[in-house]
Amino acid sequence: MYAYEPSMKDVFRMAKTIREVLVAYDRAAPLYGLMNQVYFFGRDKRFRSMVAEKLNLKPGDAVLDLCCGTALDFPFLLQKIKTQGTLLGVDLSSEMLKQAKKEIGSKGVHLVRSDAAHLAFRDKTFDAILISFCLKITPAYEKTIEEAARVLKPAGRIGVLGNHKPSGPLRLPGIILTKALSAIAKIDFETNLKEQLSKEFIIIEDRKMYGA
Ligand SMILES: C[S@@+](CC[C@H](N)C(=O)[O-])C[C@H]1O[C@@H](n2cnc3c(N)ncnc32)[C@H](O)[C@@H]1O
User: Fold this and answer.
1) Is the CB of residue 60 less than 8 Å from the CB of residue 84?
2) Cα–Cα distance between 99 and 95 in angstroms, integer?
3) What is the pLDDT of residues 159-208, one digit of tens each?
4) 15 pLDDT band (50/70/90 cuts)?
5) Pairing of strands 86-91, 62-66
6) pLDDT of 128 over the 90 cut
7) Residue 161 and residue 212: Cα distance in Å, rounded?
8) Disulfide engineering: 143 pairs with which of 1, 104, 117, 124, CB 3.0-4.6 Å?
9) Residue ranges of the alpha helices (H) in the chain?
10) Sheet holding 126-132, edge to edge
């Protein structure tokens, strides 16, 4: 188990940056859907559907969408777990959750406002967890991964989507985009998710796709 012991200096730095994340996403919430469309040209649906597929979900499963934002992953998860399943969306930003609530309407999804690094769920609660486009944003990503491992059932699956630095012909415009996104969306492209995830989980597949 990865030992997470922040120093007092780290705690103050984290407190500041998590506030920045919260303010950024509270502000962005009404436009998040549009921003997502512009950034991915609608191609994110492919990644979201693919990762939901890899979770091996069955009707009736309990799924946690950690840092769920405005619920863009929900349709893909609900399609798999059907009405007998339980879907729980957690996010830090009440404004993002407000948008999520509008999206889900009367569908039976539970939304919880919480810091992903401090979850109030019992150990081994969920059959699967999805974390899309958050671990490179949230300051305490190591602790978030540890919490995900704690609340996931043994043999449960976790799916993680995260932005990577553009390469190839997109490298030059990519540098500008990367800098802009780091400032606006608080993405830290240097975060090594694979290394951190492999401390808690067996990595079954690691794929690079356009933008994610
Ligand atoms: C880029 S958005 C991604 C939202 C959604 N998962 C998606 O794929 O569209 C990042 C989300 O992570 C949330 N977030 C960041 N740090 C968090 C934390 N520590 N706990 C819970 N949510 C967090 C933000 O509020 C925001 O909604």
Assistant:
1) yes
2) 7
3) 999 888 777 666 677 778 778 888 888 888 888 899 999 999 999 988 87
4) low
5) parallel
6) yes
7) 6
8) 117
9) 8-28, 32-40, 44-54, 74-81, 94-104, 141-151, 171-184, 193-197
10) 109-113, 86-91, 62-66, 126-132, 152-161
55 lines ligand 1 (CB under 6 A): no
Closest ligand 1 atom to residue 185 Cα is 1
Q: Which atom of ligand 1 is nearest to the CA of 140?
A: 19
What is residue 124's predicted lDDT score, i.e. its pLDDT? 98
With a 6 A CB cut-off, is 142 part of the ligand 1 pocket? Answer: no
Measured in angstroms, how far is the CA atom of residue 124 from the centroid of ligand 1?
22
- Does the domain made of 8-197 have the CATH classification 3.40.50.150? yes
Residue nearest to atom 16 of ligand 1 (CA): 138
Q: Is the pLDDT score of 101 beyond 90?
A: yes
Domain ranges, ordered by start, for the chain: 8-197
Q: How far is the CA of 3 from the centre of ligand 1 (A)?
A: 24
Q: 118 CA distance to ligand 1 centroid (A)?
A: 14
Query: Rounded to the nearest whole angstrom, what is the distance from the C-alpha of residue 159 to the centroid of ligand 1?
Result: 15
Give residue-wise pLDDT tens across range 26-55. Answer: 999 999 999 998 888 888 999 999 999 999
The answer to whether 79 and 61 have CB atoms below 8 angstroms apart is: no
Q: Measure 136 CA to ligand 1 centroid, in angstroms.
A: 10
Whether residue 13 has pLDDT greater than 70: no
Measured CA angle at 207 (ends 18, 181), to 5 deg: 35
